[in-house]
Structure formats: structure tokens, C-alpha cells
């Protein structure tokens, strides 16, 4: 069960981080401008929330590292995952409710050459949201659950695979029993182990 918990925690974190990266490349908002030749301005997730891609990449890195770090770092990474999830929710929910001028301003300025939140707001006739801001907010909520799951179970995850555990057990047995005789060496060879090599897991 605990081994399965490690798999669930790692895969969930990686999947949510990847989804966040994908969301940063998608259109979040369509903006219609007043009296503009190019009236439909597409706002991507990376423009609406500039830190979305970096935070999502950080989640990917945390997920990849979770499978190899020790107990203490698992707890630290779980806590960091929860903090990142809070940031994703906090930044994406305002876009779902109604995009602020700071989210659409850079793209409108690029099209019109006019800057300033107040002026940009006056130039906007209407806005329409795609599902991606809501998807990102949901990703943030699920990511928080994944981080809490890691915090709850990470201390009990096994540190290595069966191969390494078996090697450690053999090393401990040899230390207790003393030097190997010919029969013990033959038994090790039958199991595929070379008794002449060090017991350091490879």
C-alpha cells in the first residue's frame, strides 16, 4: 500500500505540473476592442498569469525528485507543492471571475500600442473566457490535495526498490555470519549474485 502511495504521489504531481505547463500555452481570454481593426485579442495563460509556466515547471521538478529523495525532503517537497497550489488558485480564480486589466493589458498594448490599465479598460468592449482558467484553478486545488497526500504518507515511503533492499539484507546477514564458505558462495552464485564483489547496491 505504501509503495502504491509513492507511485500515486509522484505520478499525480508530474501530471498536474504537465497540465499547468500546457495551460500556460493555451488561450484563456478573448478580448473584443472598441473600434479596432483587430478586434479579437487572444490572451494566453502565460500572459494572464506570467508565473504560471515557471510554477508548473517547478511542480514537474518536485514530482521527479519525489521518487528519489529521502524522508525529510519528501515532506519539504510536499509542503512546497501545497504552497505552489495556493499560488495557482489565487492567480487563476480572478481570471475566471473576470480578467483584471493587468492580465489583458500586455496583449492589448501589443496590438494597439496604448498602455495603461485605465486606458486599456476603456478600450475593451467585451471579454469571453475559455475553460482553461477554470481548469488551472482546479489543477491548483487537486495539486494541494496531492501535496497533502505526500505530507501524510511520504515519511513511510520505501527508500529504494526491492533490489536495493535485498542487497542491504544480504550485506547485513554476511556481517552477522562472518566470512562465506564455499557452499554460501555457491548459493549466492545460484541467485545471480557475485560473492566476490562488494555489497554496495548498484
Structure description:
The chain is mainly alpha-helical and 202 residues long. The protein has two domains: 2-156, Butyryl-CoA Dehydrogenase, subunit A, domain 3 (Up-down Bundle); 160-202, no CATH class. Helices cover 67% and strands 9% of the residues. The protein has nine helices and three strands. It has a three-stranded antiparallel β-sheet. The longest helix has 27 residues, at 71-97. The mean pLDDT is 80.
* Count of runs of 4 or more consecutive helical residues: 9
**How is the largest sheet built, in terms of strand order?**
2-1-3
- The proportion of residues in beta strands is 5-15%
How much is the radius of gyration in Å?
26 Å
User: Under the CATH scheme, which architecture of the largest domain would be assigned?
Assistant: Up-down Bundle
How many domains would you count in the coordinates? 2
Span between termini: 26 Å
- The quaternary organization reads as single chain
Q: Overall mean pLDDT score?
A: 80
The total beta strand count reads 3
- Secondary-structure class: mainly alpha
The H/E string reads HEEHHHHHEHHH
Could you name the ranges where pLDDT drops below 50 across 5 or more consecutive residues?
Answer: none
User: What top-tier CATH class of the largest domain fits best?
Assistant: Mainly Alpha
Helical content band? 55-70%
What is the fold named in CATH at topology level of the largest domain? Butyryl-CoA Dehydrogenase, subunit A, domain 3
Largest sheet: 3 strands, antiparallel
Amino acid at each position: 500500500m505504501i509503495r502504491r502511495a509513492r507511485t500515486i504521489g509522484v505520478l499525480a504531481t508530474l501530471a498536474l505540473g504537465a497540465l499547468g505547463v500546457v495551460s500556460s500555452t493555451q488561450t484563456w481570454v478573448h478580448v473584443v476592442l472598441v473600434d479596432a481593426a483587430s478586434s479579437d485579442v487572444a490572451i494566453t495563460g502565460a500572459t494572464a498569469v506570467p508565473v504560471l509556466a515557471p510554477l508548473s515547471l517547478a511542480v514537474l521538478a518536485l514530482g521527479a525528485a519525489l521518487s528519489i529523495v529521502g524522508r525529510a525532503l519528501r515532506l519539504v517537497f510536499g509542503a512546497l507543492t501545497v504552497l505552489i497550489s495556493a499560488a495557482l488558485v489565487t492567480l487563476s480564480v480572478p481570471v475566471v471571475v473576470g480578467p483584471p486589466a493587468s492580465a489583458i493589458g500586455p496583449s492589448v498594448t501589443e496590438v494597439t500600442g496604448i498602455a495603461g490599465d485605465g486606458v486599456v479598460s476603456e478600450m475593451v468592449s467585451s471579454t469571453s473566457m475559455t475553460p482553461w482558467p477554470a481548469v488551472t484553478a482546479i489543477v491548483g486545488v487537486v495539486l494541494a490535495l496531492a501535496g497533502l497526500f505526500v505530507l501524510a504518507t511520504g515519511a513511510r515511503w520505501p527508500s529504494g526498490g526491492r533490489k536495493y533492499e535485498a542487497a542491504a539484507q544480504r550485506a547485513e546477514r554476511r556481517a552477522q555470519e562472518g566470512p562465506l564458505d564455499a557452499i554460501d558462495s555457491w548459493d549466492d552464485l545460484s541467485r545471480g549474485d557475485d560473492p566476490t564483489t562488494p555489497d554496495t547496491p548498484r
